[in-house]
Structure formats: C-alpha cells, structure tokens
From TrEMBL:
It comes from Cerina litoralis. Keywords: Cytokinin biosynthesis, Hydrolase. It comes from the Bacteria. Gene3D superfamilies: 3.40.50.450. It is an enzyme of class 3 (hydrolase). This is Cytokinin riboside 5'-monophosphate phosphoribohydrolase. It catalyses: AMP + H2O = D-ribose 5-phosphate + adenine.
Amino acid sequence: MDCIVVFCGSSEGKDPTVIQTAYNLGAALANRHIRLVYGAAKIGIMGKVAQGVLDNRGEVIGVVPQFLIDKEIIHEGLSRLIITENMHQRKLKMHELSDGVIALPGGFGTMEELFEMITWAQLGLHRYPIGILNINGFYDDLLKMLRKMVSEGFLKPENHNLLLVDNAIDGLLRQMKDYKPSFLPKWISKGQT
C-alpha cells in the first residue's frame, strides 16, 4: 500500500486514547512511507492523524469540497490540497488516490464514507483493503449489527469479511498488507457510481 485514506471525526470526541491513537496512526503511516489522504481539516481526530504524519516527515493529501473551505479549518501544513466541487467528488477523488481505507472513530460523515467504500468493494468497484481501527471498542456495537445482518440474511458472509478489524495499529496495518481479496463479480461498472 502506497496511500491510505483515513475517515474519522472532525471533532476530538471524549476519549484521550482515541486522540493519541489517531496521532500514532499518522506516525505509523509516515514511518512505513504510506501517504495519507484525508478530509484536509486541522481540527479533530482528522487533524491529529495528519499531524502525526507530518511530524514524521510523511506526505499528507487533503481533499475538501469548496463549500467546506469556509466552515472547516484547513490544515496549513499539507503536502497537497485538492478542492472538489461537492462531497461526492471528494469521496471519488479520495478513492482514486488511495489503495486502502481506515476508519477511526467519528460521526455520521465517517459512517457514510466507510459504508460507501465498503459498498463499492462489495460491488467489485475496487479490491483494496478496508479496515476499522476499533479503539477502546468504539465500533463494537456496529460490528455486532453487521453480524446480525449476516445472521438475518441481509449481508453475505463473504461481503462481511471484506471489512478488516483490529484494535491495534500494527495489527490492522498487517492485516491490510496481507489482504488478498476474494473474487467478487463486478455488478456495475465504475462509470455507474
């Protein structure tokens, strides 16, 4: 993996372990020479990941839609800033730049971004690893819900297995590095997204 997109909160939340782990993830990416693609903000968990990369001489690409430039505090130390017209173009650009996805704690935006990428994987639009860094069990309830989707017949086990989960940075990055996608039929073409 050369470039990982990280989806996470624009706020810091309440758990200091999440804040520190976000920074540590950034440092780990930089130390492995993996570029970070993220939402360009200086604030929140987003800003901590970016700062971890930058403090360790890594490369950070921020992608932000024009309308958010006035609402969010853009990180001034980015290696590169890409401005899109809207949110959909933002996600598409992040997807095009990356060859892996990691979700950290966040809110609605983080969930929406994560689920769009996992849905695209399910549809065969990409074959790169998607991981959740489950810091202090933040995603436990979501993971339980996903298992229920499988048991109730709404989610195929092979699609459930597209999502890699670990509570430690090294463990998740190792899983992502070793990830071998199983064959999934392409139901739609990239142009249809």
